[in-house]
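Sample intake — Trafficking protein particle complex subunit 13 isoform X1
Collected from: Gossypium hirsutum
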Amino acid sequence: MSTTQQGTHSLAFRVMRLCKPSFHVEPPFRLDPADLFVGEDIFDDPLAAANLPPLLSSQLTKSMDSSDLTYSNRFLLHHPSDAMGFSGLLLLPQSFGAIYLGETFCSYISINNNSNFEVRDIIIKAEIQTERQRILLLDTSKSPVESVRAGGRYDFIVEHDVKELGAHTLVCTALYNDNDGERKYLPQFFKFVVANPLSVRTKVRTVKETTYLEACIENHTKSNLYMDQVEFEPAPHWSATVLKADELHPVDNSSTGGREIFKPPILIRSGGGIHNYLYQLKLASPDSAQMKVEGTNILGKLQITWRTNLGEPGRLQTQQILGTPISCKEIELQILEIPSLINLDKSFLVHLNLLNHTDRELGPFDVRLSQNSAHEEKNVMINGLQTILLPQVEAFGSTDFHLSLIATKLGVQRISGITVSDTKEKKTYDPLPDVEIFVESD
């Protein structure tokens, strides 16, 4: 690609994008001459099946005479692959073409001396200008090009990792001494647009304590993309496991030992092809919830690398993917043990544990059975004092205690309404979830 010379300058820039060539495809369809004269069913006749192929081959041999300068046979099928329209030739890039985010823009730049005299002390600069920044690719200020003879040229190559979408301008400038000693300044501009090669749509679902992340990647280019790597980098305190339909066991992304030495790339076809990836996310350890700030919902980001048909690489990194905020409870009450045998009207002990998930000391606490409704009859009650006092619990600490209960009705009953209150902060926490027990007669 080149631009016209600006003003009366001895020098002019010529720019060509360096990239892989493309396959040269001939638009006309090729054909087999036999298809024009006979149908497939003619070979059902034994006589025709024996005599027709030699007759056609002799006629084709005559039509392929190298002395035929009309090239009338250029549309004929000489090989089954000819039907695809590929000529076997590669086509060099004729323009900047489509440039996508994540690729490396490589350009061959030539500064030509179109005058009849030598040009000296040339300072050359090449920059990429975007909507947000200006990036210097080449600067010969400290070592200017000494001279370019009449009709000569000076060539160089620049590269730039494309990290922004939208309009880009390759700015090439030259400061040089002309034949009459005048210092001249030549700016030239080469514009191109960077498009998005693919889109990533994510969906996050949480089932109990496990989070599932689904990522759908869609190809927006006119070339097939071969995905070398689509890996999820989890945020701190998370671990990620990729789930595959064709594997019995998931592959852990968090350790390099489980990665395959070689895995074939996944093809995402041009013009809207898609592929889905599924990841299982878990908190890395039970203590992670203590280190997690309440309301933080950053899960991690995807690292995506690919290659095109002729091996040109591309790389993208998504923004941080957000999930449902995990609220960290200040106080958590849980049952550790319930007797297997519970008799009617006889007390039994329930072993409980109170955990402090905060970084400060909390308490003292009292534990009681709350009434969900004034008319609701409780068949499992506290045996003895209706309120149990517990001492303070240190930061990230816990305390165990026993609660004496008694059941007043046979059959399946529920332990419900066990509630903890902070007597110092005058704060009541959510009650313990209901637990079912079976009460037998003595």
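Post-analysis note: DSSP finds three helices and 32 strands in the chain.
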